[in-house]
Structure formats: C-alpha cells, structure tokens
Amino acid sequence: MPRKIILDCDPGHDDALAIVLAQGSPEIDLVGITTVAGNQTLDKTTLNARRVCTVAGITDVPICAGCPAPLVRPLVTAAHIHGESGLDGPQWGEPQVPVSDEHAVDFIIRTVMESDGDITLVPVGPLTNIALAMRKEPRIVAKVREVVLMGGSTARGNHTPAAEFNIIVDPEAAAAVFSAPWPVTMVGLNLTHQAGAGPEVVERVRALGTPLAGTVVELLHFFASTYKAAEGRPHPPVHDPCAVARVARPELVEVVDAFVVVETKGEWTSGMTVTDLTGRLGKAPNAKVATVLHREEFWDEMVDAIAALGQPGR
Ligand code: BDR
Ligand code: CA
Asked: In what helix (H) or strand (E) does residue 253 lie, and over which residues does it extend?
C-alpha cells in the first residue's frame, strides 16, 4: 500500500527532485503539494512547483500556496544557491497546472482531519506552514501518521556555522514541530551530504533522454555551480528527496533515536538542532535522526522515478 504524503516545499532545485521522487515512486501516494517561502519568496516557490509539475506531467495533485513569511522573523532566501527565480538553470515555459484556491495550512488540516490517520507530512522547506497548521488545529498532531522532515543537522550548519537553512529561516516554527508529541524524523545535513549528484548520476539521468530528464540535468548543472561556489563541494547534495526516500523505502535511510531541540535564543547558534546522540542530557528521545544513506539504492530509486514520469501517459 503506497504511503500517503503531503509534500511541503519551497522549490528550489532539490525540492524539484523531491516532487519528482514523490510522484514517480510506486511506494508513495502524493496527495498534495504545499508551498512556503524559503529558498525564494512564496510567489516564486509556488510558480516553481507548478513549473516542475508541468514538466513532470503531474496534473492530478493539488498545489496549495501557504505562508509568505516565517512566524516571527523576516524572510531570508537562498538566491546564492537557487538563483533569483528559485529554480535557475532551465528555460521554463508557462505552467500548465493551476494553483488551488485553498490555503496550504487549511489544506493540510482538512486532509489530515478527513483521513484515516494515514497521512505523513514531508516538509522540505522552513516549517512555517506545519507549525501554523498545528496551532490552528491542534488535533492534527494526534492524527498525522508521522512527520519526516529535511532540516537541521547532527553537526554543523550550512547557513550559519550552527544552523541549517530550513531551520534558521523559521526557528520558532521548527521548535514547535520538534516539541510536539508526534513522531518526527530529522533528515539533516549529516545525511543529505551523502547524496551528492556526481557525474555518473548526471549521465544516468541524461541517458534517459526524456524532456523531464533533460530538465533535471539542467537543474543539477546549475545546482553544482552554486554549491561549488558557496561551499566548494564537488557534487551538489540533493537534500530534499532524501526525506521522501525515507518514507518510500525506509531501509535506504538508517536512523537512530535521539533527543533534538531547536535553539531559538542563541546569539550565534539560533536555528541549531542540538542533537543528543549519546544521552548526555538525560532526556527521552523525541525524534528519529537519519544517519546513513544507502547511496546507490537511493540514486536507483531517484533515476527510476525520473524515468517513470518521462513515460507517455504518466
Ligand atoms: C535545505 O535548504 C534549501 O536550500 C534546500 O532546498 C533544502 O531544503 C538544505 O539546507
Ligand atoms: Ca527545500
């Protein structure tokens, strides 16, 4: 039985791959895409979700726009990684899929409350929509099956030395999500840095020869150039599909139980996901923390998804 997910995202190059993996994987039933401000402003991330769905032939999944700014802080974007459009690289045509009239927060609440308790939330951007949905309808916390998020790190950050981007953009929202009594899995940088898209991956995708594969190659090309400039990495890490992969094929992403808390007050450490892997704080674990990616199988799953969506009629 495919796992039902709502993908909450801020496309974003790796968000685009998360959308493709979610729709292309036979193990996932993508019931909705919700957008949030993060990598770029909300108007751009929403347009980008529609662009990706158009190229991938995803016409039957609602796209709902959510929050244009974090709960309390001003929005910070990541143009240095994703470009001014949020999805620089390919030439995008006019999107052929609409945006829903329903706000993302209301979509999340309605879908979860109407469900049999089988919806997994997969947030791969700042956690603003998820925190606001919890506040507006606290009963979703007991009803959601689990939250599997891309964000944070067991070690260092990427936006500051301490903080990963999705968490530092809205630390108050992240703190609310981690402290709520629902099952949370943190797929952080320590895991996603194992998902570098090297030349052999790019060639596998290129060889598929479909328009979607061509777009993915262009996305990876741009992403590689900005990651090299920003972090000196030879291969860009595709963070967001790692969270989708954990839901689709749990054995691809190994986890450990740990206590995780989001720092919101530190002058230099705000947005840090303080992760107690050795139990020093004496706190009960409140999260599963991703540690090891089975890289070959992950890329097999990703390439299969791109190939599946490239087929006529999908
Ligand atoms: C996260 O930040 C964004 O730039 C990416 O899309 C990913 O979700 C990585 O820190
Ligand atoms: Ca993202």
From this structure: strand 253-262
CB-based contacts of 39: which residues, under 8 Å, 6+ apart? Answer: 10, 11, 12, 15, 45, 77, 78, 81, 82, 86, 125
Ramachandran sector of residue 12 (left: φ over 0; alpha: ψ -120 to 50; beta: rest): left
- Check: CB of residue 156 under 8 Å from CB of residue 244: no
* Mean pLDDT value of segment 248-255: 98
Write the pLDDT tens digit of every residue in 256-267: 999 999 999 999
Count of all residues that appear for the chain in the document: 314
Bridge partner residues of 290 (DSSP):
255
For residue 310, the model assigns a pLDDT of 74
Q: Which two tokens stand for residue 151?
A: 């964000």
Torsion of CA 128, 130, 136, 141, to 10 degrees: -150
Region 3-309: CATH code = 3.90.245.10
Q: Delimit the domains of the chain by residue range.
A: 3-309
Query: 227: Cβ below 6 Å to ligand 1?
Result: no
Ligand 1 pocket check for 8: Cβ under 6 Å: no
Is 193 noted as a catalytic residue in this protein?
A: no
Asked if pLDDT for residue 313 goes beyond 60, the answer is no
Closest residue by Cα to atom 4, ligand 1, is: 39
The rounded distance, in Å, linking the Cα atoms of 213 and 115 is 34
